[in-house]
Hints:
The chain is an alpha/beta fold. The chain has helices at 19-26, 35-48, 66-74, 84-92, 109-118, 128-141, 180-189, 210-228, 255-269, 279-282, 315-319, 407-410, and strands spanning 5-8, 11-14, 17-18, 30-34, 54-59, 78-81, 100-102, 122-125, 145-151, 193-200, 236-238, 272-275, 286-298, 301-306, 325-327, 335-341, 350-358, 365-368, 389-394, 397-402.
Amino acid sequence: MNPVLELREGSLACEGVSLDTIAEAVGTPAYVYSSSAIRGQFERLDRALSGIPHRIHYSLKANANAAILRLVRSLGGGADVVSGGELYRALQGGFAPEDVVFGGVGKSARELAEAVEAGVRLINVESEAELRLLDGLACERKRKVPVGLRLNPEITVDSPHAYIRTGGKGHKFGIPWDEGLSAARLAASLPWLELAGLDMHVGSQLAELDAYERGLERVLGLLEAIRGEGISSVRYLDIGGGLAVPYEDEAPPDLRAYGRIVRDATRRTGLELLVEPGRFLVADAGSLLTRVLYRKRSGGREIAVTDAGMTELLRPSHYQAYHHIEPVRPRQRVTVRIDVVGPVCESGDFLALDREMPDIEAGDLLVVRTAGAYGYSMASNYNARPRAAEVLVDGDRYAVTTEREEYADLIRLERHALEWRTT
């Protein structure tokens, strides 16, 4: 569980700031992020990779909050983006184009053109058709573009949910393994592309490290075959992210073993290592504050209805994910088995089902832990619910980094005086 939440004077605090204070000031629901936790995770990963040329590129899809991007940039990190919107966010967050790696399975021509024009460090390509499209766009702009090949290592991994497995045979991601060498030949032959990297991503929430080891062996074998073809332009080895984060009682990943596997493989290649952590850096740093609206009973089940639900944290509903939940002000209470549900008009709207926890009442402030990744980034306006505020804590101070949406924001882009068109 999140080590930056500590009990102080009868109330949980994030670093030096009481969660009660934050909730009173900004309301609920609200996301609260710890600067020290993000710094700590970044530094631990950086140390694990010491001794080899490497760069940590933070994966924006986990949480693209501008304040977090500035914090990662201040630590020396780069950015990993998977859409034109994320590229825009990264550049607005202060990352230089050469700090950005652009991936994603379905990049549009517009998004690829934006990446070419920006001059990003690397575009990771996922099909031969994308290579040809990108070459044409680069030709139009007379810009040589460095590309990496995202390869599907076709490795079966043990991860908590099928939706976060990305490197198995038949998955939509990456270039099929048996087409890797032909894709490399094509990339090297296209006049406006430079084959600069090999990329793999075997999945998310990987507690066992053998998937990295097996994937790297496959990539290194392909690199040898590529070099055997006389192609010597590859300079990056991109191994994606995927390091596990403990949500319940799981053991954290063994960073020493991870570093040893990755360093040994990278030294054999002579390449610069790129890693793309997202969840690993921010999940444990974030908490979701929510208040109990009602307490009720139905069909023999105890139910607490809170003001946060699937619109603020989709993971429990979408992935059946576990998040620890507790009162911000612990009191001596008996435990109860209870459903913690949200206000959204869906039976699948819940934060926890049949959870044993301290008995809670209407008005209680709760904290949902490990909510820094895929919380706000997957939030929605379903049921016309304004999105929550985001807060960053740094020591004994805090700041609102994203204002709570107002009702007017829900209709800001809608046109009320329609301009009709005919064909």
